[in-house]
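Now for today's protein:

——
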Amino acid sequence: MKDLHFEKISPIAAPARDLYAWHTRPGAFTRLIPPWQEISLPAGGPTVRNGAQVRIRMKRGPLTLSWLAEHRNVRPGESFEDFQVSGPFGKWEHLHEFRPAVNGSILRDSIHYRPPGGALGAAVLGGSIRADIERTFAYRHRTTAADLALHAGFAGRSPLTVAITGASGLVGESLSALLTTGGHRVLRLVRRPSDHPDAVEWRPEIGIVEPGRLEGIDAVVHLAGENIGSGRWTKRKRERILTSRVQGTRSLIQSLAVLDAPPNVFLGASAVGVYGDRGSQLLDERNAPGDGFLADVCAQWEDAVGTAGELGSRVAMLRFGVIVSPRGGMLAKLLPPFRAGLGGVVGSGEQYLSWVSIDDAISAALFTLQRDDLEGPINVVAPHPVTNRGLTRRLGDVLQRPTILPMPAPLARAAFGQMADEMLLASTRVVPTILQDAGFGFRHQRLEDALAHLLGR
């Protein structure tokens, strides 16, 4: 059958050489995978050189598809091609092209392909395949342009070496990819021995196993901690939530203290849960911590992070809001019932939710790393918090599903215990005053825009 053709062309406000370099760095493929797709690839991603191959595994419903691709016709600074060696398509040839332009460059993706199953497959699957390709490359081009714009804001600064705990988590994995596409080096602090040159073993109870391997690093981003959203908050669970954060932070900082040159920057994760349940009160970094288990955990966590200042490091606490991504966290839990038309408000629906898209969460972390004047608590939230009712309506609209099945507060408490009162029913209306005053540019100021981007709608 005749080949089908797809082409996507976008202007990028960056030189062609920077656009090409971004695509060849370790985290590029991770940044380009749409979050609504379940795709896995080898650690580090593919290497762009002639003959280099990568095996990709893609899950579609109950099926897992294996795809072996090879890079060919690599023209450094200009273009490269991907060819399907084996996989689901009858043919797949993808040209990545990077052309100079007056105000930057032109990104061109050109694909010649044949659907699986020949003419019958094209007739049955052709429309859905085309639609999937279109939404995938719309996402890819938006992400590429935004990432390069972020990196361009710090073009005159030297590349950083950043150690990250929790690097395999939702935020850590995405932040690692963002950093490496900007030319920075990431050392992953892992809990098991590893032969990878950029993996350093650490144990939250004792710290870094070989502290000397961190000599000369520029920064630490400490994200690790017990998952607060999984399982009921039993007494033992609450102890793990607190200890993993406070003791883990103290042991990490004690390990850094033995270095000849401790890191210049220490970023510690925290959460807007530090403010407690405050109703409709508008909150920013000037407000004191509130009451409750989460508020107490965050306050103790931030106190532990603050001791990194004794090393001479600039210290900031990133108070993350609810991070919006279909790959994990709240949104991943909401998607199955909402897609089935079983979504609805929780409790009164009037409680405020302070949220941030995954892209803005990691961009704010990089922004804070690069800005020498930012320290102390920083709210990492979008400028426009929403109520639970607003979240329910917006998610239903994006998914085009009804949202008529509420979860009354007593039912939420019966199902989730204390977690319901502090996470589902509590109201925290937070704004990012420090980031906005510093000139941080949000990709997604409004929830409906974030959902449309992250879900490919």
